[in-house]
Amino acid sequence: MSSDSTDLPDTGTNRIGSDDLDDLMELLADHRRRYALYYLRKQKSAVEMDELASRIAEWDSSAGDRERILTELRHKHLPKMEETGIIERNGDKVQRDDANGPIDRYLDLACEIEGLP
Questions:
Q1: Is 86 exposed, middle or buried (0-12, 13-18, 19+ CB in 10 A)?
Q2: Of 36, 40, 96, 105, which has the highest C-beta tally within 10 A?
Q3: What is the pLDDT of residues 54-102, one digit of tens each?
Q4: Which residues, in sequence order, are CB contacts of 22 under 8 Å at separation 6+?
């Protein structure tokens, strides 16, 4: 990514540079971040973090309990996604901030491979 911005590029096309592609792939490398993005991209407005954690727990058979997922979301996954500009947090609510961004075609493919809605 460029040194003057941590946001994924908004080029108006699906073409991105290699540094940005590295960042995008890093976001998608963790299944819980992917699950969060699958869910958030289908929502028309911000969702509560509890709701997001519950949905991830439903999809992740290895997840353990919802509270653990919620803690990981708050301290690990959501900050990383927010840093790249793909989500926006406001208190305990979160939403996608780059609808139809370059990540969507990769999310479509990953979601199809994982067989999630």
A1: buried
A2: 36
A3: 999 999 877 678 899 999 999 999 999 999 889 999 999 999 987 667 8
A4: none
DSSP for residue 25: H
Q: Which fold has domain 18-114?
A: Arc Repressor Mutant, subunit A (1.10.10)
User: What per-residue confidence (pLDDT) applies to 2?
Assistant: 39
Residue ranges of the domains in the chain?
18-114
Amino acid at 47: V
Residue 97, SS3 per DSSP:
coil
Instruction: Give the DSSP per-residue string, 31-96.
Output: HHHHHHHHHHHT-SS-EEHHHHHHHHHHH-TT---HHHHHHHIIIIIHHHHHHTTSEEEETTEEEE
Coil, strand or helix: which one is 104?
Answer: helix
Residue 115 burial (C-beta neighbours within 10 Å; 0-12, 13-18, 19+) = exposed
Question: 1: pLDDT confidence band, cut at 50, 70 and 90?
Answer: very low
